[in-house]
Specification:
With 192 residues, this protein is mainly α. It has 6 helices and no strands. This is Phosphatase PAP2 family protein.
Length: 192
Amino acid sequence: MLERLLRLDYKLFFHINNVWSHPVLDAFVPWLREPFVWAPLYLFLLMFVTMNYGWRGLWWAAFFLITFGLADQSSLFIKDTVGRLRPCRDPLIQHFVRLLVVHCPGSGSFTSSHAANHFALGTFCFLTFRHISKWFAASFFVWAAVICYAQVYVGVHYPLDVTGGGLLGIFLGVMSAGVFQRRIRLEPELST
């Protein structure tokens, strides 16, 4: 069963990385992974929530950052434990991988930290913002999925890596948002 799953993982990787490629995507997709593209969104959220929700917003910001840290460190721990080679580092297939970034990271491949981080934050935002707008809140999942796809497209992760990272992130986002929603919640400050 595991062998079949890995075979499917390789096949899907090569479709995303090679077959479903396009020069416009080659120029655009690598930028999606970069912090200067996604960090402004998260900084805006931190500022927006703290400015509009007072002390609750400060707690939201703290939980947001804790969620990010937990996802990142958990993913790094799993990477070190599993030790799966990235496609761009695997000597058996690296010559067939289209690497669209400057260098191939030396860390393990499973789980993707990008996937874990963005799905953790996306889940946290969805669960804490859905009372405001379900469409806005759901857009965080689309954002996380696009970044995960980019990880495979550029050749640094397999689909199973981003799936595992995404599931880890969703789990941590649910746990973090659950504690936040039970204890604090985002409710506008009442002005006196």
